[in-house]
Amino acid sequence: MLGFLKVFGKGVLYTILFPFIVLILVLYTVYCIFLFVFEFFRSLILWIKGGSPFDDTPEDAEAKRILLAKQNQEANVQTNDQYKDALIATLASAVAAQSQAAQQNTQQQDVPTLDVFPTNELEHEEPSQIEQYIDEKGDGEQ
């Protein structure tokens, strides 16, 4: 008996709801046909004017302009931060080099400096130590 009531209830439910389901499907079909016809004529008019239905609308163009301006502003802020960091690093290295040079100057005042390659001694035509050594040993031992 319970099975019969389930089947009977479904039948009554489908009988009552079927017209509403069909009405919803018909209205949706009419809406889609109307939208198809409207878009066809809209695209045709745009094509005749030389445009495209896929071009940006004025609202899209405005939104892109706003986003681009915001991105440029963020890029400028990042660039300014990078310049500031580079400037700070350059100034810090200059101050460090200056303080190091000042320390070296104070240390070098006490210690005499010597040239690594004394140019005045190289200009003399006297034989160097290696030449004297070769001359003393002779040519036979080479």
Rounded radius of gyration (Å): 47 Å
Number of helices: 4
Pattern of helices and strands: HHHH
Classify the secondary structure makeup into a structural class.
mainly alpha
Helix content: over 70%
Average pLDDT: 80
Strand content: under 5%
Bulk shape: elongated
Main sheet: strands, sense, barrel: none
Q: Stretches where pLDDT falls below 50 for ≥5 residues? A: none
Q: Distance N terminus to C terminus? A: 128 Å
| Number of DSSP-assigned strands | 0
Architecture overview:
With 142 residues, the protein is mostly helical. Helix content is 79%, strand content 0%. The protein contains four helices and no strands. The model has no long low-confidence stretch (mean pLDDT 80).
Keywords:
142 residues, mainly alpha, 0% strand, elongated
Provide a compact summary of the structure.
The mean pLDDT is 80. The chain is mainly alpha-helical and 142 residues long.
